[in-house]
User: Fold this.
Amino acid sequence: MRRTILTTLFPLAAVIAAVAVLPSQAPAAVIDSTNGVQTGTATIAAGATSTTATIGTVVPAQSILWFEVSHNEASPNSGSISGQITNGTTLTFQRQGTTGAVAIRYHVAYFSSGVTVQRGAAAKNGAATVNVSISPVNLAQSFVLISERRSGGGFDGAGFVRARLST
Assistant:
């Protein structure tokens, strides 16, 4: 059995989720020796809703992205950022608003073996719960990563998003 990672983008209150299955019988996850872990920066400029970053070649179906942002935005409309591996050499970061610049520091892990990644997209559009279908995974050996892009007048308790795996 192979490891599985799921990444899902939810535009407009967007969430990216990644699920890794780590079965005990699976081959070890091996970081690629050439482009295994890449770290870099990108900026969404004031007035823009997105930016891209070029990375060394990876196989998206074997790679995961995580990132952090820095900004002075009072509104999630311009400060909530989603990110995804768009193709083998491109990362895309997006937001809904255009106020102020947002600095992004990203990390991409590319596994040459032992990991498989699934990606998809679904709009939340104010719904309390959104179910995203994925191929079966071992729930006891999986994890979820998410990022969100949403609107709103301020960062508050309503801005927290939770993702979980279920059967």
The first strand starts at residue 3 and ends at 9. The CA atoms of residues 72 and 100 lie 8 Å apart. The two ends are 18 Å apart (CA to CA).
